[in-house]
Every structure is written in structure tokens, then in C-alpha cells.
Amino acid sequence: MTATSILLSVVLTLSMSLANGASTSAPGLEVSGDHANACVVASLPGPEYYRIDLVPTRRLVGSASVNGYGDVYFASSPFGVALTSTGHYAYDLKVEVSGLRERSGKEYVLWVTSPSLDEIHRIGPLVDGRLSTRVEMNKYLVVLTLEDAGVTSNKWQGPVVMRGMSRSGLMHTMAGHGPFESEPCAQYGYR
Length: 191
Known about the structure:
- This protein is mainly beta.
- It has a single domain (48-188), classed as Immunoglobulin-like.
- It contains two helices and ten strands; from the N terminus they run αββββββββββα.
- It has an eight-stranded antiparallel beta sheet. Strands 1-2 form a two-stranded antiparallel ribbon.
- β6 (106-113) and β7 (120-125) form a beta hairpin.
- The longest helix is centred in the N-terminal third of the chain and has 17 residues, at 3-19.
- The chain is elongated.
- The N and C termini lie far apart (62 Å).
- Residues 21-33 have low confidence and may be disordered.
């Protein structure tokens, strides 16, 4: 028997098993809805290492005690890691912020931007201190601003309330190290 015929036998056996209703679930796999016959690797919770700490900028009265973070998960994919057509990783970002004061006629808006600020994406206003989105950049900043309610624009107009940096972006700053020890790391999203 040749390798090709063995492979063909295995594929046919698996196809017939699936057609007859055999279970496709296995540890780390999730099959549901429109993907009933597709094998999709579940989006598993990312380790705490991937959490983005959102640091208050203290540019608003009462914002020094605000706490926030963004949990980063790898987006679901049949290949284990989701990539965009340009080769960037696709992440699911779930942001949660507590301690924000309500401000009349204002809303807290979440943004995701490249570290050089040349690519800025308005995600939207926080709802009950939470917001989820898909991020398709390898290195990025998460920025929370205070904007006029109902106004949409391509760039933020109001003050930055909080900001944080993706773990991949943290590797490219020397703040707080070597000759830059006098630089406060918190200015760059570190705690």
C-alpha cells in the first residue's frame, strides 16, 4: 500500500465518521453553529502576561484612582493563530475600567493606535465601563479619552484619561533601564 492510498483511506474514514454524526470535539477545540463541520480552535483565555494595564494620566480631576485593564486573547481560527491578510496577528481585546466619574454631555471613548500614532482606530464609547473589539496590529497602544457625547471623529479631541501598551510594544522601550533609569516607566504604560 502506498502512502497516498493510506492517506486517502484515513481521509475517507474520517469523512464518513463525521457524516454519520461522530463527535468532533476534543480538548481545545470548539465546534458550533455554522461551523458544525469545521474544526475551529477555541479562543482560550490568555495568560495574565497578555493583560494590558491601563495607566491613568491624571489629566482629569478625580481620575488618579481609576483602574483599568485590557485582556488580550488570540482570536479564534481553524489554524490555531488568526492572521490578517497583511500578516498581522488578530487579537480579541476586552477592556474593563472602574472608577470613572459620569460627566454630563461626555463619554469615555476607547481607541487603538500604532505606537507611532500614524494609524488610529476609534473603537467606541465604553458601556458600563466595558468594551470588546478585534485588534489587527502586532504592536499597539490602547487609549481612553473623554469626548463630547455622540460626536465621532477619526482622532481624539478630548483629554487622554488612560493608556496602555501591548506586550509586544513593551519590548521596544528602554524606559527605566540603563542610561534611561531617570525616565519614569509609568509614562510609557508600565507600573
